């Protein structure tokens, strides 16, 4: 299954087990889902990958910490915890995006909290919203070196192919989250010594900026922002 399908189904199932009521309010459900989603996803991931039935109890006090602990089966190192916390904060402050809008539309019909969140998950799953992260990473991973990336991207531009991670109705110049997450991407690359993905993403960004200079009316947000330079 796709991870977003797992979250969607887990949320729906919890809506049957713990339905919204006077004693289980939307606010309580929101807190419950924030706590439960990392466990849902990581239990599925670990069992799907290795057949392990893991314990979902950890001593970590944050969503990011719990997620990483379950992923690596150990308390996370500070640099990974800080990086994921930054990423989650930037997502939380992403204003009125498509999935938030979908949740609000569902809520406006006086449907329950679970239905609203399921609407948001389904919208986020789309390749022009949250799924763009996956497509952008697939683009980065298709190149072995920065020079390969430059040649490949120029060919795509010549072929008028879609370059995932670029093109936004609101962020005409650059995603304001980009500089922040790029800093963390660089930190993690340097920390692990695995710099290939970062170097490729930097070259892709530069090629697109150069293209923007040649064609000023081109409508894309130059850094490919969060998607292209996000944390792998």
The profile of the biggest β sheet is: none
Structural class: mainly alpha
Number of separate strands:
0
Which residues sit in consecutive blocks of at least 5 with pLDDT less than 50? 221-232
Mean pLDDT reading: 87
- What value does the Rg take, in angstroms? 19 Å
How many helical stretches?
11
Strand content: under 5%
- Kindly report how far apart the N and C termini lie: 20 Å
Task: Using the alpha-carbon principal axes, give the shape.
Answer: globular
**Quaternary structure type:** single chain
* Helix amount: 55-70%
Secondary-structure element string: HHHHHHHHHHH
Walk me through the structure.
- With 232 residues, this protein is mostly helical.
- It has eleven helices and no strands.
- Mean pLDDT is 87; it is low at 221-232.
Short description:
By secondary structure, this protein is mainly alpha-helical.
List keywords for this structure.
disordered C terminus, 232 residues, single chain, mainly alpha
Spell out the blueprint of helices and strands.
Layout: H1 3-17, H2 26-50, H3 63-72, H4 78-92, H5 98-108, H6 113-124, H7 131-141, H8 146-158, H9 178-192, H10 196-214, H11 225-229
Helix pairs in contact: 1-2, 1-6, 2-3, 3-4, 4-9, 5-6, 8-10
